[in-house]
Amino acid sequence: MRSLKTLAIASLLLLAAASVAMAGPAYDRVMKDKTLRAGIMTDSIPGAFYNEKKEWVGFDVDIAEEIAKRLGVKLERVAVNNKTRVAFVQEGRIDISVANMTHKRERDKSIDFSITYFFDGQKVLVKKGAVKDWKDLMGKKVATMQGTTSEINLKAKLKSLGEKNVDQSVISFQKESECFQALQMGRVAGWSTDSTILLGYAAQEPGKWEVIGDFISDEPYGIGLPQDDSALRDAVNFAIQDMWTDGAYMKIYDKWYGPNTPYAFPMSGKIEMWP
Amino acid sequence: MLKHWMEKPLAQYAALAFILGLAVWYWGFVFSFHYKFDWSVLFVENKTYGLNLGLELLKGLSLTVKISLLSAAIALTLGTALGLARLSHFRPLRWVATCYVEFFRNTPLLVQLFFWYFALPKLLPDAGREWLFSLHYEFWVAVCGLAAYTSSFMAEVIRAGLQSIHKGLLEAAYSSGLTYFQVLTRIILPLAFRAIIPPLGSEFLNNMKNSSLAMVVGVADLTWQSQQIESLTFRGFEATTAATVLYLSLSLIISGVLNTVNRRLRVERPARPGWMDLALDRVLLPVNLFLRGLTRPLRRMARRRRQSLTRSALGALWARFLGLARRALVLAGKAVFLGLLAGLAWKIFEGLSAFDWAVVRDNFTTMLIWRFPHGDEHEILWGLGGLSFSLLMAVIAISVSFVMGLVIGLARMAENRVLRIPATAYIELIRGNPLIIVIFWVYFFVPVLLDTFLNVFWSATIALTLFTAAYIAEIVRGGIQNIPRGQFEAAYSTGLTYAQTMRRIILPQALKQMIPAIVGQFIAIFKDTSLAYVIGVLELTFVAQGLNNRLMVHPFEIYSTVALLYFLGCYAMSLFAARLERRLSPERIRLRM
């Protein structure tokens, strides 16, 4: 029995000795196979979600399609979530990740980012009229998503306002839909993440919810790219710049965030145009 | 010549070491990973977040232990009550217990947890909800949800243990003049416990592993924390390895305790108790004292009553009054129970009639087949998803894991260490970890080891298969060990080879015994397909979440339908298993408590 345990641990260490690989230069592969594999979310409204007809649509989907079109290749959509999007780029399972992803230095240690293609900030969604400002949320519970920058920012914000036990007051769920459900049933007083996501959910039950408070962080969205593949990074960056200058970008933007949509979000003019 | 050498332990160890060395050489030096290990994330404070992530992992471990212990205690109490209720004379009680057990056994824990957390509070009045939320709600949902789930399994184990006592034994006991209480404490319970403890122990183990699902309701347990390290630092490999090691050690501790208990329950006790036995004695001392203190007055009372066979007139009147009062009390208890039952049924009826069934109707095909046959050719099976996807995963996993389990189970029993040690290692490694961790390993790391990419569907199916095969291997081993040793000897002495003996004599008998257990495992796979949702497989739970996400206001309708769909599939299988069990063991009779 003892030798067995030793063996179990030894084989475990062996497994541990193996690790995450990266495929070769992604750009060459994309051009050879004529397919661009893009990681896209499935439950982020209006970023990327399944609509009533069970089609996979959204702002990020259209951006990814447009980039593939400009590279002259076909898009292959790969479902990712906030846990897998970085790992997939690292492993080479996807070439780009268009998935509500804030460009952060910590993430830049593992993967590269494109220039900013969308600019958002973090706010909090509450029941209409219940809470006015961040200060009113002291001593109450707030939901957020596990392992996101939102979680870190929220904890920092609550700490700065004087909340003692942040681990108790912040409840982290696996999915956006779970956060919203927790808010609906009254388990939490607020749900904090990027404001466009909050707008998307608030629009599901018009008039019941509102997004309040100042932005507690800037969230420049970038497209995740494999580390040190400058050919692909350039190609994606140029595609975004071209989309911006010839108006294709605003067309997609207005389709999802324009004034006539349920998710109206005025263009902030903070979109950067170069890396 | 080779065969002769391979029988020597030294040669076998050498062969194993050679294989291990080859694997280390290949993945350590030839295969290129392009990944720098950084184990320091597990013990050095992370500058960006100002957190020591290793410490957080240990916090998660302590939470996992706490949840496991609390839920196991509640589940044992509830399970015992339910197991006894299932053998009750009072039909409504028996019926309720049966419904409870069947329902909780046959729906996935994941769906149950979603229901407890997201749907239940909506039923409550505002005051009740306020009160619930003032507690540490996530933690208690995890504990109670887990306990409710585990208790249904424990109830079955306890019922089966009690029923396994032969009727003749009871008749003999009664005819030798023992009272009911004496029969219960001297005959039934000791015998039943000997039969119950091993399966009950594996339920404790499962309970600990199932606690990994607490993360879906926002509890920061061990799995949650390892996921957190992964998403904060992208050191998934290091984090998952750490979680695996911790889970494995927990499992080994639990099974060590169980083995000791098992050994002590055997009729002949070991001459020299090991240190584990002594430690267990120390730990169990208060429990033993408590039990003895509790049963002694009862026993003494029973003894005293039997000593005085003659009663005075007043005493007889008093005894009659006591008897009547007791009967009235029992009757009142039954009435209260029926009243409560009617109230519950009315509440459920009210809730169901308030449902918006149109939502279920409109989305029913989505839940069953997603968008098949209108999907595009890139998707697996042209857009199949939902229940049919879950079934497909289960069918593939069942058929492959059965063959794998058979082979590994036989290897586990082989004399040759080259087969036995790897098979044992595989079984212990897989069984020591929660399914969710196995899914993460296959999903993130197996493709890397083999240098290919896998579709999520295949990753989940492979993980399910690997996981189930380990369990089936153990069932196979148990089945074969149940066959009397003499059969092997008789077969060998008639000149059959090992392979012939196994194929013609042993396996046909053993498989027959194993069928109920194996069907039980198949039910478990079907339920466990719901876990594939964590990596985004479009199976029933994932589709339900997507629907709920889009429709927002109908979680009750959707989750109830999903629970019902899982239940129907599992219940059909368990009916089948029960029929097989009955057919295979006709001499079992119904013992009533």
Summarize this structure as a short list of keywords or feature phrases.
heterodimer; A: 275 residues; alpha/beta; three-stranded parallel beta sheet; 11 helices; 12 strands; 39% helix; B: 593 residues; mainly alpha; two-stranded antiparallel ribbon; 23 helices
Instruction: State the share of residues found in helices of chain B, binned by percent.
Output: over 70%
Low-pLDDT sequence parts of chain B: none
Note the quaternary state here: heterodimer
Distance from N terminus to C terminus of chain B (CA atoms, Å) equals 62 Å
Calculate the mean pLDDT score of chain B and round it.
86
Low-confidence stretches of chain A: 12-23
* Biggest sheet details of chain B: 2 strands, antiparallel
* Backbone CA Rg of chain B: 27 Å
DSSP helical segment count of chain A: 11
Which range does the strand content of chain B fall in?
Answer: under 5%
Describe what is shown at a glance.
Chain A has 275 residues and is α/β, with parallel strands linked by helices. Helix content of chain A is 39%, strand content 23%.
Q: Would you write up a description of this structure?
A:
The complex is a heterodimer of chains A (275) and B (593). Chain A has helices spanning 2-17, 26-33, 59-71, 85-91, 105-108, 149-160, 166-169, 176-184, 195-202, 230-245, 248-257, and strands spanning 35-40, 43-44, 48-50, 56-57, 74-79, 96-98, 112-127, 142-145, 170-173, 190-194, 209-212, 218-225. Chain A has 275 residues and is an alpha/beta fold. In chain A, strands 7, 8, 9, 10, 11 and 12 form a 6-stranded mixed β-sheet that branches. In chain A, strands 5-1-6 form a 3-stranded parallel β-sheet, sandwiched between helices. In chain B, 78% of the residues lie in helices and 1% in strands. Chain B starts with a helix and ends in a 9-residue tail after the last helix. Classes of the chains: A alpha/beta (275), B mainly alpha (593). At the A-B interface, helix 1, helix 4, helix 5, strand 9 and helix 8 of A face helix 2, helix 5, helix 10, helix 11 and helix 16 of B.
